[in-house]
Amino acid sequence: MPIRLVAIDLDGTLLNSQAEISPGNRQALASATERGIQVVVVTGRRLHSARPIVGQLPCPVTLICSNGALISSPSGEVVHRDFLPSQVAVEVLKVAREYRPHAVVIFDVSTRGQVTMQEGASREGPLSWYLEKAPEFLALVSELEAAITSDPVQIMFGGPPARLAPLEHILRDSSVGPSVHLTWTKYFSRNMSLLDVMNRSCSKGGALRLWAGRCGVEPREIMAIGDNYNDREMLEFCGHPVLMGNCTPGLGEDHWCVTESNDQDGVAAALYSYVLSN
Q1: How many structural domains comprise the chain?
Q2: Same domain, 64 and 193
Q3: pLDDT in tens, 71-107
Q4: In whole angstroms, what is the distance from residue 74 CA to residue 175 CA?
Q5: Do 75 and 210 sit in the same domain of this protein?
Q6: DSSP per position, 123-190
């Protein structure tokens, strides 16, 4: 059965190491769209961070962002939200109080406070990145729990892998464990890891399943391309999982296909090998 939908991660996959979409990847996606293949970008990035990037593509794109918490149609309409309930978010912060300097709360707003951290946040965590890349959205507050007056999109903890590693078990073994879904993104070369705390039902794979169902597309008609641990559910769901050549060690299964790296137009290579050649 031919592939009707291609789901593509952003960082480390569609984007090269300079955070750019190469001309080769652009052309391959345009060719796929001309054949009637639907393009879905599935990312851990916030909606406001991902939209300008997706807007550079020469084709209509459905955007699944924040690891599945929000789906935006090609017209820009938000058609699905799966946010972390506020009372659960508060409990997460209480359980993980030791890791408060590494915590980020993401809200679905277009103003300052979209990214909220506590005063005194660690420079080893995401603070430095947001100060450089998105200072207009960053708010620093005296007490993070008090800032949760509505359901956040997610809570994220960022920092060196060795520092954050115990946090997964702390959360899973706590009273809040059954209410959340935890997913890692790890960049060992940069000594940085992100632990995203999502609503229990929320994942890239779950959101892709929902969107494909609305479009009448079967899993066996989907190819997904990813590079990191937060892509695992998406790759497991689809009929044609493809790993990037630069993927995080231990991500996939032995029978999964592997394409070139993100600096070698790996997305284009996968499209030409498994979709456009048929």
Answers
A1: 2
A2: no
A3: 999 999 999 999 999 999 999 999 999 999 999 999 9
A4: 39
A5: yes
A6: TTTTHHHHHHH-GGGEEEES-TGGG-SS--SEEEEEE-HHHHHHHHHHHHTSTTGGGEEEEEEEEGGG
